[in-house]
Design brief:
Helix content is 30%, strand content 19%. The protein is of the alpha/beta class. A six-stranded mixed β-sheet has the order 2-3-1-4-5-6, with helices on both faces. The chain contains five helices and six strands; from the N terminus they run βαββαβαβαβα. Helix 3 links the parallel strand 4 and strand 5. The relative contact order is 0.19. Bound molecules: guanosine-5'-diphosphate.
Length: 180
């Protein structure tokens, strides 16, 4: 595949799937109705800010995975960081947990490829919670409401900007060097 990859990572229920659907331009959500339900990794072609790319949702996990859960999330995060040009680290601004802190630590070495997405910023009151996310030390958080489509333009511009800066990818057909 020639398109750069944009991977969405984060603990369960922060809104990864909802954000995936929003960024993929889908009207109808394929978000599972049961929270924490198992989903395989979803991978889809999309275009963001004029840049064609592959959008990867690292998926959900079963609620009964217990102690295994965090290690499985870590594993998928590690894979995403290895294989993606841009990693969207999604947190739920209303509920920051120890798992988020752990993932942030793990993702720190890939900071130059990372965008911190503060999801569920549905209203002005929740905007007040956003500055707290600077404690992750992962740069400026991008406040969005994936469910209501708020803040998407800034995030999309940031994604496109990162892709141009990091890969020099201009979106021109045939511009890529490796073809398989
Ligand atoms: P995932 O497990 O990280 O993929 O999370 P999902 O996309 O399945 O979303 C988990 C829950 O959060 C669902 O009930 C969504 O409707 C809800 N959700 C997602 N985005 C938002 C948002 O922007 N605002 C609010 N209030 N809820 C959201």
């Amino acid at each position: 595949m020639d398109e750069p990859r944009v991977a969405i990572v984060g603990r369960p229920n922060v809104g990864k799937s909802t954000l995936f659907n929003r960024l993929a331009g889908r009207r109808k959500s394929i978000t599972a109705s049961t929270p924490g339900v198992t989903r395989d990794e979803v991978d889809e072609r999309a275009e963001i800010g004029g840049v064609p790319l592959r959008l990867v949702d690292t998926g959900g996990f079963t609620a009964d995975a217990g102690g295994e859960l965090i290690s499985r999330i870590r594993e998928r995060c590690r894979d995403a960081v290895r294989t993606a040009e841009v990693v969207l680290f999604v947190v739920d601004v209303t509920e920051i947990s120890g798992e988020d802190e752990e993932l942030a630590e793990m993702l720190r070495p890939a900071e130059d490829r990372l965008l911190l997405v503060a999801n569920k910023v549905d209203n002005e009151k929740r905007e007040l919670l956003v500055p707290d996310l600077y404690r992750f030390g992962l740069g400026d958080p991008y406040p969005v409401s994936a469910e209501h489509g708020i803040g998407m333009r800034d995030l999309e511009e940031a994604i496109a900007g990162r892709l141009s800066a990091l890969t020099g990818y201009a979106g021109a057909p045939g511009s890529s060097s490796s073809r398989r």
